[in-house]
Amino acid sequence: MVVKVGSSSLTTLPGGLDVDRLRALVDVLGALRAAGRQVVLVSSGAIAAGLAPLSLTGRPRDLATAQAAASVGQLRLVQTYADAFAAHGVTVGQVLLTADDLTRRSHYRNASQTIERLLALGVLPIVNENDTVATEEIRFGDNDRLAALVAHVAVADALVLLSDVDGVYDGDPRTGPAQLIDTVRGPEDLAAVALGSASRNGVGTGGMATKVEAALIASGAGVPVVVASTPQAAAALAGERVGTLFAARGRRPSARQFWLRYASRPRGRVLLDEGAVRAVRERHASLLAAGVTGSTGDFLADDPVELVGPDGVVVARGLVAYDARELPALLGRKTADLDPEHRREVVHRDEMVLVSRRFAG
């Protein structure tokens, strides 16, 4: 099980870390471990936990102060977790990640191996974004998305997203009548739903929109997700019908396919003609040089790139077989007309995942 808990469930703005709330969650997870289940905890709260010790009255707006608060708060947060879990006979290990650790393929494998080994040794991994060094360019943006990626990395049976909201509603229950959505079977079930973007107590960075995005990522990769409030944790982990269930959809992709779709950061774009778009999209064929009209970006062979049609729509994402400087000489040429060393596919079908979104910019 991967369980994610937000800052709003562990901290308060004036008092920082709420030890009683944290211990209540640990009691639930400790009971789950005693029942023989493996658990990975993705916990926010480092910056919020550092506010009170630094006499800060609100979440810092500048990056340096936020990183300083995280440096102080992360130590306090994990030590409090370690003490609370020790009462249940559970050893914890800290895993701090930045988006760069999962966008780089080798780092992604290392994160997977570390979490797998910790679990095999009977350790409960506590994962958090490494806010002490993360910049805007390499941030996950919110730990909900990090939790969705960790759920796949850890080959989880389920993901539970806990916060101060008890599920997904068809409107904002704070401003008017709204009904809890019991089950989401796909994005179409939420087409008419307006999602909030702010936490209730001012110490968190996420909102329901980030939880829904994360839940759709994980459930689309074959991992069922429950979005519930932290007081409902025991019921959610016991399989009771609380919160909102995002049903698993489709087969679980390989680690490589999942990384390409959700974790890789494209280093450039390869531009396709209409024929290549049809071949890639309809037949899931490899991309050949004959269908390439241009490229942008300074990428190297084996870097992830986006494949973009003439209309600006991103068709697929894949690992390119050539450096950016090699492609201009190959544009539009048939494979048989190329030198032997350039007759390989520009992007092989096994190194490609289909996507569909408009590129803005």
Automatic annotation (TrEMBL):
Catalyzes the transfer of a phosphate group to glutamate to form L-glutamate 5-phosphate. PROSITE patterns: GLUTAMATE_5_KINASE, PUA. It comes from Modestobacter italicus (strain DSM 44449 / CECT 9708 / BC 501). Substrate binds at residues 44, 131, 143. CDD domains: AAK_G5K_ProB, PUA_G5K. One of its GO terms (cellular component) is cytosol. Pfam families: AA_kinase (PF00696), PUA (PF01472). Pathway: Amino-acid biosynthesis; L-proline biosynthesis; L-glutamate 5-semialdehyde from L-glutamate: step 1/2. HAMAP family: ProB. The gene is proB. Its EC number is 2.7.2.11. GO terms for molecular function: ATP binding; glutamate 5-kinase activity; RNA binding. The keyword Cytoplasm applies. Belongs to the glutamate 5-kinase family. It catalyses: L-glutamate + ATP = L-glutamyl 5-phosphate + ADP. It is found in: Cytoplasm. ATP binds at residues 4, 163-164, 205-211. Gene3D superfamilies: Acetylglutamate kinase-like, PUA domain. Its main location: cytoplasm. Transmembrane segments: none annotated. GO terms for biological process: L-proline biosynthetic process. Keywords: Amino-acid biosynthesis, ATP-binding, Cytoplasm, Kinase, Nucleotide-binding, Proline biosynthesis, Transferase. Residues 268-347 form the PUA domain. This is Glutamate 5-kinase. PANTHER family: GLUTAMATE 5-KINASE, ISOPENTENYL PHOSPHATE KINASE. InterPro entries: AceGlu_kinase-like_sf, Asp/Glu/Uridylate_kinase, G5K_ProB, Glu/AcGlu_kinase, Glu_5kinase, Glu_5kinase/COase_Synthase, Glutamate_5-kinase_CS, PUA. Signal peptide: none annotated.
